UniProtKB/TrEMBL annotation, chain A:
This is Tripartite tricarboxylate transporter TctB family protein. Keywords: Membrane, Transmembrane, Transmembrane helix. Residues 7-153 form the DUF1468 domain. InterPro entries: DUF1468. The chain crosses the membrane at residues 38-58, 79-98, 104-122.
UniProtKB/TrEMBL annotation, chain B:
It comes from the Bacteria. PANTHER family: TRICARBOXYLIC TRANSPORT PROTEIN. The chain crosses the membrane at residues 12-36, 48-70, 105-129, 141-159, 166-183, 256-280, 313-334, 354-375, 408-424, 431-449, 469-488. The lineage of its organism: Bacteria, Pseudomonadati, Pseudomonadota, Alphaproteobacteria, Acetobacterales. Residues 17-436 form the DUF112 domain. This is Tripartite tricarboxylate transporter permease. Keywords: Membrane, Transmembrane, Transmembrane helix. It comes from Neoroseomonas eburnea.
Amino acid sequence: MHLSDRITGGFLVLLGALAFWGGSRLPAVPGQDVGPAVFPMVVGGGLALCGALIVLGIGHSFEDEETEPVEAHEGLARWLGAWRALAAFVPPALLLFYVLASEALGFLPTAFVMVAVAALSLGASPRLALAMAVAAPPVVHLVFYKLLRVPLPAGILPAPW
Amino acid sequence: MTAFLEAMRLVAAPDVLIAIMASAVYGLVVGSLPGLSATMATALLVPVTFYLSPIAAVATIITASAMAIFSGDIPGALMRIPGTPASAAYTDEAYAMTRKGQAELALGAGLWFSAIGGIVGTLSLVLMAPALAEMALSFSTFEYFWLAFLGLMCATLVARSSPIKAIAAMLLGLLFACIGIENPGGVPRFTLGITDLLGGIEPIPALVGVFAVSEVMRAMTTPEPPPLPRRRFGSILAGQWALTKKYQWPMWRGNIVGIIIGVLPGAGADMAAWVSYATAKRFSKEPEKFGTGHPEGLVEAGASNNASLASGWVPSLLFGIPGDTITAIAIGVLYMKGLNPGPTLFTERASSMYALYIIFVLANIIMIPLGIVMIRAASLVLRAPRSAVMPVIVLLCAVGAFATGNNLFSVLLVGLFGIVGFVMERNGYPVAALVLGIVMGTMVEQNFVTSLIKSDGDVLPFFERPVSSVLAAMTIAALLWPAAVWAIRRLRPAEAAR
């Protein structure tokens, strides 16, 4: 996900301008000059300024020279080939899966899928992935549900404790 | 004295002692695994601290972070991969020592001087905090505004990246903090009509996302580090006393520099290690030996990063302004446990403060035996394949975020902040500045707006009170520092090229 300074800087200019505009439209506190609008406007203005400076390449000399990290050639990254950078999005996708599925499926099955997918994506052997996916969720469930009393959803497979 | 005895009793409670032992082991293991930083270890602990007594909760954070900062030295020395960013400054040096067959000396120095640094840092906390508390009682919103702003500026200075990008990251954090209805007008701000955003963005999901999820994301696209060769270690502590005597000066300099950097709001252990390694080289009698496996820099920087850890609690406890990312997390826990930071903490809750000091000293003492066990077990722990560790981290991120408020929206936030952190890191935007922006946003805004209301929109009173004018000068100096560095480099190109 390496983007040029122009893209990230440009994005910041846009975001800063939006924050400034959004801030300026906030209702003021009656009888007060200074209200909820001031801070977002200051921050948004600053952000837009920084973004513009980044686009112009100011401050670039302070950065370490570009070191492109060595790309992984194992697990999902190998399977994806030229699209291997996309493998990075597996963890947030798994968190999204947890949000969508944990209520219906329950904690144990959801966690099983998450651990198995993450392990396989990182290049674990199927045996290791299966072992982790079977062993880890009950331990986590035991600690958080029993010891810390976090109401983890039971779903289709309630834990025996 | 009664307060001190009361503190002893608080610490000696079985739940506190168990919490210290368990979090010590946890900190050592997590810190030693490459890619899992001390901040991440602490962030993942927070959901657990919800369910502990106040002293036990603070004890887990203190112990785990101290252990993790030391244990980051282990993979640094053995594999040339720093376990935590705070070890990165001297990883090459420690690895060079290992190649020379002095692995024991390198690891022992990390352990021994970490413990010394931690204890000296604690002493500074004990001595400094009450004196500063006295002063802090007279602070008004102007001083608090400058102090918070100074903290944010320091966070951008230490980032070893483009200062403009660091400031942008910090402002982005402040912008995230604007979300919600907790603002001077009490109106929903930037909530995009999403009910879950009305309460604002909690720092914990943001921290877990930025420090833990983004690390797993990075693991997905980088190859697995090579396995650690098995080795047998000789005595770990042999030769440390000789090193202590030989490098007494660097050790003290490291302690003091660490303390100063720790006290500065916003700058923490990473920065302390880099600065101390550089000063060790600068003032050494034999600077040519640096980089070839010379313990001097290790002594100074190893002491420095642990000293900064303890003194980082000074601004956190006094003003609620984090000294680094770890104390940024700790402040959240303090509030949750009713130990609200502020100068009155030292007068009204003196026994809790003493308990905190005792825990610090205790943690640094048990670090030595536990650290030796950890070094000997390192080849075992570090052989755990990444593909087995990282999936568990993902699961802990989900459950931990859920546990902070029992709602699924936090889990979603963790995922989103993982992406934000990953993209920022890859493009040279320091994430620590973002996190401090998020943590301190509400406080900065409150003091800024209150001050503006008091002064009728005038900026001049911000500079009129004596302490606030000094803080303002420091902040502006921090802001202009990169420009000065740039100008000096320009004027003296010959020296820069050397």
